[in-house]
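Question:
Write out your own:
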Amino acid sequence: MASTQTDRIEVTAELAKELIPILEDKIAGFESHIVSLEDERDRLRRTLAELKAKLNGQAASVSANGSKKRLRKGEAVKIVHELLTSLPNNGGLSIKDIVSKTGVSYGSVFRTLHKDKKHRFKQDNGLWKVA
C-alpha cells in the first residue's frame, strides 16, 4: 500500500524571501523555453506540410515519361487546403508562394483559390487563407 505521507520543508521568512526571486527566474526561464519550443514545433509542422504538399503535387503532375500530367479532380484543392491549414496562427500565402511550396501549376492554384465552390479560401491583404 502506498504511503500518503508528504515531507514538509520548513523555511524561515528570510530564506523564503531569498528563494522567491530564484524560483520566479527559473519559472520565467521555463516559460521562455516553452515559447521557443512551440516556435520550433510550428516551423517543423510548416516544413512537413510543405514537403508533403510538394510531394503530392509532384507525384500528381509528372507522368512516367517526364511530361506534365493533369491533376485528378479535387487534387489541387486538397493540396492547397492541406498547406494553408498547416500554417500557424491562421497565416496566409501568396499564390506564388503556394505554387513554389506545392509544385502545383500557377493556373491550377489560381483556379482553386478563386473558383472553389465550397468557399474554403479567402484573400486577406494579398495572402490566401483558409476561410
